[in-house]
Amino acid sequence: MSPASPQIPCITAHGACIPQVGLGTMTLTGRSGLRAIETALEVGYRHIDTAAYYENEHLVGAALRNSGVRREDVFITTKVRAADAKPDDFARVVDQGLANLQLPYVDLLLIHWPSKDVPLHLTVGALCKAKREGKARHVGVSNFTTALLEEAWMSTSEPLVCNQIECHPYINQDKVVAACEMYGMAVVAYVPMGRGGMAGEEVLARIGAAHGRTAAQIAMRYLIQRGMAAVPRSSDRQHLIDNLNVFDFALTRADMAELDALKASHTRLVDPPSAPVWDTP
Fold first, then answer.
1. Cα 1 to chain center, whole Å?
2. Residue 125 sits in a domain of what CATH number?
3. Does residue 273 sit within a domain?
């Protein structure tokens, strides 16, 4: 780890130790994407989040090899999308992902989105099979609602360690977060800064000024202080460093209450036509 980078705390769930800040890699492609992932590893990231759908698993593997960082020191997550929810397709995509990464296993394998066409128990079975075969150290889900979490837990033979969901100060995810806590699952937040929408937000900027931090760092710290992990995406070196530097200060109780109030707007940014019926606030 770079001498200037902080130690990254982990959250634990069912034996998994997930670094609380990771690099989201959606849209990081080509040479610039490779450089961004290499830079993240250089400045101290030890959690990289990719997916078959992102078409950049090969870049994650190349960046890891180029970095000189030991494989066992980096927590790598990949995901299988809903279009490949049938067991045979799921297994094929997992094998292709490992070939792309040039790795024998990933640390965390997720069902990227629930399928509306394939019974969930079949996909969960394929997920568990991949773990039993040693292709993933841990397994979990992404974009699952409270009802889907219940169904998944009824179907699984392996502990589901996390639910990766959209989470930032402007969305109310209290119900699904509570369900994750009930099952002992970690919450991993994607788009934690609202796709850059936090930068000019008055409340976050004001709280940031009081702590000598950016609005984006306040959005990150809010999730960290709630016990979540977060995987912001960035290709900018300074932003990558800033996103890591959220462990040496704390928001006050009043800060947290003010930020909690923002979720009343319930602004959901990721809502494709294939999305499940979301939990209402």
1. 21
2. 3.20.20.100
3. no
Contact 205, 215 (CB under 8 A): yes
Selected catalytic residue, list 45, 54, 190, 222: 54
Q: Is 190 a catalytic residue?
A: no
Note whether residue 51 is domain-resident: yes
- The total of structural domains in the chain comes to 1
Which residues fall within 8 angstroms of residue 185, CB to CB, at 6 or more apart? 13, 14, 140, 149, 160, 161, 162, 163
* Structural domain boundaries enclosing 257: 10-264
* Beta strand ranges found along 28-159 (DSSP E): 47-49, 75-80, 106-111, 136-142
Coil, strand or helix: which one is 109? strand
Contact between 51 and 26 (Cβ < 8 Å): yes
Q: pTM for this one? A: 0.96
- Model confidence over 203-257: pLDDT tens digits? 999 999 999 999 999 999 999 999 999 999 999 999 999 999 999 999 999 999 9
Q: What angle do CA 48, 50, 55 make, to 5 degrees?
A: 140
Residues 125, 136: Cα–Cα separation, whole Å: 14
The sign one gets for the Cα dihedral 47, 215, 171, 57 is: negative
| Residue 43 CA: distances (Å) to CA of 3, 6, 74, 104, 276 | 9, 9, 13, 25, 37
